[in-house]
Amino acid sequence: MQEFDLFASRQGEPCFYRIIGISETYLQEIQELDCTLAGNSSYLRINEFKILSDKNQIQHYQETVQEYQKNYPKISEMLKLYHQSIKLVNQTIEKNLLVSVFFWYDNYLKEYMQQTGRKKLVCSGKMGYKEYLFCYFAYLLGVDVLLLLPEGDLKISDILLKQSQAFTTGRTEAVKIPAYQKPALRPQAAAQKKINTIHPDRKKQNTELSYEALARLAKSVVMISVYDRNGEFKGSGSGIAISKDGYILTNLHVLSDGDIYAVRLENDEQVYPAYQIIKYHTQFNLAVIKIDRNLDPLRIYDGRNELVRGQKIIAIGSPMGLFNSVSDGIIAGFRKTENQEYIQFTAAVSDGSCGGALLNTYGEIIGINTAHVIKGENINLAVSYKQILPFILGFLH
Length: 397
Known about the structure:
By secondary structure, the protein is an alpha+beta fold. The chain has two domains: 2-168, Rossmann fold, CATH 3.40.50; 188-395, Thrombin, subunit H (Beta Barrel), CATH 2.40.10.120. The protein is 27% helix and 26% strand. The protein has helices at 2-9, 26-36, 55-71, 75-85, 91-109, 129-140, 158-161, 188-195, 211-215, 252-255, 385-392; strands at 16-20, 43-46, 120-123, 144-149, 165-168, 221-227, 233-241, 247-250, 260-264, 272-274, 279-281, 286-290, 299-300, 312-317, 325-337, 340-345, 357-359, 364-372, 380-384. The strands form three sheets. It has a seven-stranded antiparallel sheet. A six-stranded antiparallel beta barrel has the order 14-15-16-19-18-17. A five-stranded parallel sheet has the order 2-3-4-1-5, with helices on both faces. Helix 4 runs antiparallel to helix 6 (129-140). The longest helix has 19 residues, at 91-109. The relative contact order is 0.13.
């Protein structure tokens, strides 16, 4: 369903969606959403809301509800909507609502809100006005919220329902949605085995390529022009073909200011549009878009030998909009931050090169060009294939 992709790639203001009913691929779509956002520490899926039954806990929240309200001023907006939707509300009913909301906040959102990155919350299970208002509270805090309603829409006030956007798909039916389990990254050995068989028509290179042959691989590197929803040009970057089916890898920051992306390829006069980000990883600064065209994908390095300083490399991208420029250099070093590994290289790159390919002399992707130091001379960084490989495995076949 397109709504799952839209939720996964949502940029800009926070969203509050309801998906009503199921499709033939409903559970598969949920699993794919989990896989897409698995590397994001700010992703949370609630399968069933916990029931507050412990007397001591109930007493605690009843005694501290006013303190919570002081700490979370956004709760007043939620209460205002609640009073608009339900006419007969007394202090006891309101307090019971707040006890449940703050109980769920402590159990689900408190630690989660400390994480960095775009926050996304998916909820399913038994849901009424209390659960809905909790989700609305999360939305007010800047969280993207998606409600899964396979059995039909909620039986609550229209005033409440108008706060979220509904998507109806397929039939309504009771279905057991499995609890979220964070998918584990595949072992490196398994990843290497996968890579060796992903493009059977492209045999593994056993000999180094000439610079002329490496430059011809630019046909698999694209230029991406970025536009906002009004069609205003915001900038450009580069991308790498990773699948015959039209999937393109780039940097997330290349796409982050846009709503529409126009893709150009070598020796093709047509411009191919892409309207959404299929998958992204905030920490790795990686993203995938798709165009309606067959592509000639580049091979990802399989890690058979460690990369070393002084190793020759080729960078392909579109610096300053100069379509598919090719430059050469060497690996200058390796830089690490928390959970991230960069390749420092000397090939010339500029604004617009980001998202382009960093290749070894066998024509394999060892990194994606990601940053350069403006005041430095040829001090450039690429996200390593070690991060790229697990991120794009699902698109390689």
